[in-house]
Design goal:
Helix 2 packs across helix 3 (36-48). This protein has helices at 9-20, 25-32, 36-48, 52-55, 57-61. The protein is built from five helices and no strands. With 68 residues, the chain is mainly α.
């Protein structure tokens, strides 16, 4: 059988929000209580197929420059 990412929608949402905060997959795995490779595969999938824009991760990663 094929290997698929068996994450719920709420887990995916939590992973993407934690990733946008700058946390590593190891830190996220402790929060979500999943194996860190699972999060890594989800994030690689999102990057590969350009779904980052749809999930809003890029908005979290691209910080607007502040005027000093």
């Amino acid at each position: 059988m094929g290997r698929k990412c068996d994450l719920t929608a709420s887990e995916k949402s939590r992973i993407t929000s934690e990733f946008s905060k700058g946390k590593s997959t190891l830190e996220i795995s402790k929060v979500v209580e999943r194996y860190h490779e699972t999060e890594k595969k989800l994030l690689q999938f999102l990057r590969r197929y350009g779904i980052m824009i749809w999930t809003g991760i890029m908005a979290g990663l691209e910080k607007a420059p502040t005027d000093a």
